[in-house]
Every structure is written in structure tokens, then in C-alpha cells.
């Protein structure tokens, strides 16, 4: 199943990047900045993280050396956070300058957490996830790691979820308004047809 996800992710993200390269329409849109960033992050996750996870599952142990594991864990934390923030930013309309600023913030925000986790040595192989990821080794660090995890997930994933929910609630509100208008127009048309018919 993981191999299938890897192949589909690789192909779909490459197709998105190819569409961006060959379509001037997509490149003209501000949302294209976030789309490319999203696909690029997903592509890197697919190429760098998924194979190591697959090796971890197959071998039932850390796939490669400690330095490589830390690099993969760093990238996984950075790229997943960046992906979530890009998805949240993709839903809003803005000028190109604002999109570049928001993208810069997304990268800075996403780099902060893996750097902190490297500083505290919280990136390591986790047998639970069969991958190199955020992992608490020593119980003495439990409180600090818990605070870090809460802040990381709140500012990266919960923030993105709230923004996406708010945006799609606005879309739903507009869709309902249009449905009501369509229903009124349909009813008026039916009344006219009934009145015209002898």
C-alpha cells in the first residue's frame, strides 16, 4: 500500500509541476505560488521520507545511520508543516507580493520547529511509526517535549484546519445563497409557465 501511495504521489506531484511549467494561465495566478510549493514539498516527502519509512517497515529497524535519520526527520517535520501552511494559504485571495511574504513566513515557521527539535535531540527513529520523526528518547524531557508538540501542532496543523474550515464555510454560505436564488428563479419560471399555459 505504501508503494502505491509513493507511486501515485510521485506521479501526481510531477504532473502538477509540469502543468505549472507549461501553463501560462496557472503561472499568472497568485495561487500558483502555493500550488508549486505544495507540490514541491509533497514531492520531497515522497522521494526522501517514504522510501526510508518503507525500509523501516521492511527491516523493522532504523533504515540508515543516525545522521541520515536526523536529516530525514528534520525534512519530514519541515515539509509536513510547510505543506499544511501552504494549503491554508492557498484558499485565500491575495496579491502576488502578499503571497511571497506569506510563503516566506510559511518557510520560516516550518523551519523553526525542526531546528528546535534538532537542538533538543528529539529527531530520531521511532519504531511506532517505523520512520525517522519527532521522538522523545528521555522521560526527563517529557514536559518540554509535550509543550513543543502542542505548540507545533497548534500553530501548524490546527491553525491550518481552522483557516480551511472557515474558508470552506464561506464557500458553503455562498453556495447556499446561489441555490436559494436558483430555487427562486426556478419557482418563478414554473409560475410563469403555469400562467401562460391555457
Features:
elongated; 198 residues; Rhopdopsin 7-helix transmembrane proteins; transmembrane; membrane; mainly alpha; two-stranded antiparallel sheet
Structural features, described:
The chain has 198 residues and is mostly helical. It has a single domain (2-196), classed as Rhopdopsin 7-helix transmembrane proteins. Helices cover 80% and strands 4% of the residues. It has helices at 2-22, 24-28, 31-59, 66-90, 96-119, 142-196; strands at 123-126, 131-134. Strands 1-2 form a two-stranded antiparallel sheet. Strand 1 (123-126) and strand 2 (131-134) form a beta hairpin.
Give me the secondary-structure topology:
Elements: H1 2-22, H2 24-28, H3 31-59, H4 66-90, H5 96-119, E1 123-126, E2 131-134, H6 142-196
Antiparallel strand pairs: 1-2
Helix pairs in contact: 1-3, 3-4, 3-5, 4-5, 4-6
Amino acid at each position: 500500500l505504501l508503494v502505491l501511495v509513493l507511486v501515485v504521489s510521485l506521479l501526481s506531484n510531477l504532473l502538477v509541476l509540469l502543468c505549472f511549467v507549461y501553463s501560462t494561465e496557472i503561472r499568472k495566478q497568485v495561487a500558483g505560488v502555493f500550488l508549486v510549493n505544495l507540490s514541491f514539498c509533497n514531492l520531497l516527502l515522497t522521494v526522501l521520507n517514504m522510501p526510508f519509512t518503507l525500509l523501516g517497515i521492511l527491516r523493522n529497524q532504523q533504515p540508515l545511520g543516525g545522521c541520515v535519520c536526523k536529516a530525514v526527520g528534520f525534512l519530514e517535520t519541515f515539509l509536513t508543516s510547510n505543506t499544511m501552511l501552504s494549503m491554508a494559504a492557498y484558499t485565500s485571495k491575495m496579491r502576488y507580493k502578499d503571497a511571497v511574504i506569506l510563503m516566506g513566513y510559511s518557510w520560516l515557521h516550518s523551519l523553526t520547529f525542526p531546528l528546535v527539535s534538532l537542538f533538543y535531540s528529539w529527531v530520531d527513529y521511532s519504531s511506532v511509526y517505523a520512520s525517522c520523526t519527532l521522538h522523545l528518547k528521555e522521560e526527563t524531557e517529557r514536559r518540554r517535549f509535550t509543550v513543543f508538540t502542542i505548540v507545533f501542532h497548534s500553530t501548524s496543523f490546527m491553525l491550518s484546519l481552522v483557516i480551511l474550515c472557515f474558508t470552506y464555510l464561506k464557500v458553503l454560505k455562498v453556495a447556499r445563497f446561489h441555490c436559494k436564488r436558483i430555487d427562486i428563479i426556478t419557482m418563478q419560471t414554473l409560475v410563469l409557465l403555469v400562467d401562460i399555459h391555457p
